[in-house]
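User: Reviewer 2 asked us to show a designed sequence for the structure in our supplementary figure. I'm pasting the structure tokens here. Could you produce the per-position amino acids so we can include them in the response letter?
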């Protein structure tokens, strides 16, 4: 019945109010007319009946506040009027009661109206000289603070806005209100309201501290005085989304004064979210930071957050890689060569730690490969990146080896020789890349000055990140010292002598650097190579695994040694000048060994070497190498890696041109056996034993009875 009455009077009621408002504007009145409901006997009877059905005047008053008052159009009925019309004589509705009634309705319009009345009442009672006592004793202010912790989201959010409005009106102080908000955290049900109020207070605090001509410095830090947002995050980990939303709003605030100083205002919060090891790593703070304009403040804060990432910790390495990955991806997208160049060596160090802790480094390799494709500036970091990647080779599983080789020279080549020395089916694809790297190394003779350390150290961002990792800074220092001393052999030798005195465990960390010096092909540095080689050989006693890495390096150095071997022989010893064939014999012997072990997997790759040996070794000094080459072909035939008929077509013309005398193998065998039997019958005792051992290697069918002397038979 009441709803029908309200709907019946509503058109005329609102129409009359609009006419009154128009008349007030025409008469230029300051205040608008009041909204009034046309009460009648029917409406009074309905209200009285509702209170009667409630059972008591107190219950009827609650019914009127919660159910009846929201039915009227906003402003056309007040709680005091409803009580009077319903005949509740024993209940006097004070202004505070009306406010309470409206707040309990949870109607957003009524709640805002109630909070607005509270603010007006507080402002009217406020006396600046009695601020401290007023803030503690005022009942309306106590109610407002109480409603900030209400369960209803509309009430708590509006009440928090009311506190913020009182600060703007000068009734409350910023610091005291911030402390009040923080004390409400344990009892708060709506953290979003608390956090949004904190953001508003931070803006007011920021504007109050700005001094023209000076740089703003935030008063809050990680510990004391702690930033309010950090306090919220420590009390409730689930509030991170609300905090990040307010941080984004501050960073993108329409007021330039706020947005330009937002990073300084939120610096400690960004550090807490990105660097706190006790929190789970989230990329949202990084994405927010990277989405902001690349100002000096943004770069400074980004480098500070990166510098605090721990890459030498098993629990934190994945989080650190995620952070560096996000920043590098953004730099590659912007084609920011300075950032990419600075980040590549750090990514190489991260790949070291990923492998060390048994994690997959291939995403890191892929990111580095993309980084090197950005312009030409990242090339200045290539030397340092390679020497750091070389540390991965001794401990890289076969699964990750191909990606390691594919990405990448002296240290890198030195560490890769041990894998080339022991081929495997599991590393077939990886060793193809390794062989290509080795060919580039062998063919390259020019010195690229763009790889020198001064070019990389001119990068300001790299200098900021340099000392975040001990191994990275030590490697850079080593390379810088070597570049300064490499043209002065005396100073370099003295420096290397000093390295001999350091602890063996430290020398183990410098192995990649030592290998690089050993592989240096500068002819003027042979004495340096030998000096470093002695240091590494001495380390074998400290760590036996060094021998596995060192042996292939020694073989490679010996095989590629161009120093005159003849000088090692005593003068006048005399020997034929067949040294040029020794390399062919050594090479084809290695090929034969591979044919015996891996003919099926590497056979086709060995055919060109066998063919070139046969073409080159066609005279008498090359007969030994040629015979071994033919044995290699026989092994390839047996393994099915080479078709006999095609090989014979290539061999037949060469054998037809052979000018050497045909050897009758049967006649040769009989002659050899006859000579051996003669030694048995006529020779000295030691000669008889040797002849018998030789005869034991011949089949009995190799000679007849007449070849045996009468005495022996």
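Assistant: Here is a per-position design you can include in the supplement:
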């Amino acid at each position: 019945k009441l709803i029908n009455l309200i709907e019946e009077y509503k058109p005329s009621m609102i129409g009359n109010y609009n006419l009154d408002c128009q008349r007030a504007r025409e008469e230029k009145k300051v205040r608008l007319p009041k909204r009034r409901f046309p009460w009648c006997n029917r409406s009074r009877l309905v209200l009285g009946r509702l209170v009667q059905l409630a059972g008591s005047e107190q219950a009827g008053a609650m019914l009127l506040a919660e159910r009846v008052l929201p039915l009227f159009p906003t402003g056309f009925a007040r709680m005091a009027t409803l009580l009077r019309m319903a005949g509740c004589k024993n209940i006097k509705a004070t202004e505070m009661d009306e406010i309470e009634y409206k707040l309990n309705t949870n109607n957003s319009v009524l709640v805002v109206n109630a909070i607005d009345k509270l603010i007006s009442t507080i402002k009217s009672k406020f006396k600046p000289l009695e601020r401290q006592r007023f803030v503690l004793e005022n009942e309306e202010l106590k109610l407002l603070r109480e409603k900030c912790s209400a369960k209803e989201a509309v009430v708590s959010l509006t009440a928090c806005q009311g506190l913020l409005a009182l600060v703007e009106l000068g009734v409350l102080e910023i610091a005291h209100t911030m402390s009040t908000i923080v004390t409400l955290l344990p009892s708060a049900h709506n953290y979003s309201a608390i956090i949004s109020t904190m953001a508003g207070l931070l803006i007011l605090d920021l504007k109050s501290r700005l001094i023209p001509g000076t740089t703003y410095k935030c008063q809050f830090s990680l510990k004391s005085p702690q930033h309010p947002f950090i306090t919220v995050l420590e009390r409730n980990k689930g509030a991170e989304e609300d905090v990040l939303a307010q941080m984004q709003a501050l960073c993108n605030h329409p007021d330039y004064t706020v947005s330009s100083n937002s990073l300084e205002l939120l610096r400690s919060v960004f550090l807490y979210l990105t660097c706190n090891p006790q929190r789970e790593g989230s990329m949202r703070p990084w994405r927010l930071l990277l989405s902001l304009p690349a100002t000096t403040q943004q770069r400074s804060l980004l480098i500070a957050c990166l510098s605090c990432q721990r890459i030498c910790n098993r629990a934190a390495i994945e989080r650190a890689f995620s952070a560096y990955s996000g920043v590098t991806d953004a730099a590659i997208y912007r084609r920011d060569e300075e950032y990419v160049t600075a980040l590549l060596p750090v990514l190489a160090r991260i790949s070291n730690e990923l492998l060390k802790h048994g994690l997959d480094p291939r995403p890191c390799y892929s990111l580095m490969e993309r980084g090197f494709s950005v312009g030409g500036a990242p090339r200045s970091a290539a030397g340092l990146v390679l020497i750091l990647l070389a540390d991965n080779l001794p401990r890289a599983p076969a699964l990750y080896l191909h990606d390691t080789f594919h990405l990448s020279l002296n240290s890198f080549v030195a560490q890769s020789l041990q894998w080339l020395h022991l081929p495997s089916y599991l590393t077939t694809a990886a060793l193809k890349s390794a062989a290509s790297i080795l060919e580039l190394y062998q063919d390259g003779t020019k010195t690229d000055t763009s790889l020198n350390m001064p070019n990389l150290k001119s990068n300001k961002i790299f200098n900021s990140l340099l000392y975040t990792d001990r191994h990275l800074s030590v490697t850079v220092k080593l390379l810088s010292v070597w570049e300064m001393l490499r043209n002065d052999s005396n100073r370099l030798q003295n420096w290397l002598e000093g390295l001999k005195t350091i602890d063996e465990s430290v020398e183990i960390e410098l192995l990649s650097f030592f290998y690089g010096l050993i592989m240096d092909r500068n002819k003027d540095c042979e004495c340096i190579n030998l000096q470093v080689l002695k240091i590494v050989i001495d380390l074998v006693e400290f760590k036996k695994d060094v021998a596995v890495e060192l042996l292939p390096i020694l073989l490679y150095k010996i095989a590629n040694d161009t120093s005159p071997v003849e000088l090692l022989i005593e003068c006048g010893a005399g020997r034929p000048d067949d040294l040029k064939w020794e390399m062919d014999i050594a090479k084809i012997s290695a090929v034969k060994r591979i044919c015996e072990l891996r003919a099926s997997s590497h056979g086709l790759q060995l055919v060109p070497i066998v063919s070139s040996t046969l073409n080159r070794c066609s005279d008498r000094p090359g007969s030994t190498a040629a015979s071994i080459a033919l044995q290699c072909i026989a092994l390839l035939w047996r393994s099915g890696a080479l078709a006999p008929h095609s090989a014979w077509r290539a061999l037949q013309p060469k054998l037809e041109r052979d000018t050497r005398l045909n050897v009758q193998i049967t006649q040769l065998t009989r002659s050899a056996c006859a000579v051996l039997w003669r030694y048995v019958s006529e020779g000295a005792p030691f000669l008889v034993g040797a002849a018998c051992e030789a005869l034991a290697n011949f089949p009995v069918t190799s000679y007849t009875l007449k070849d045996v002397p009468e005495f022996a038979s």
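For the response letter, you might also mention the following. Confidence is low (pLDDT under 50) at residues 565-575. The two ends are 144 Å apart (CA to CA).
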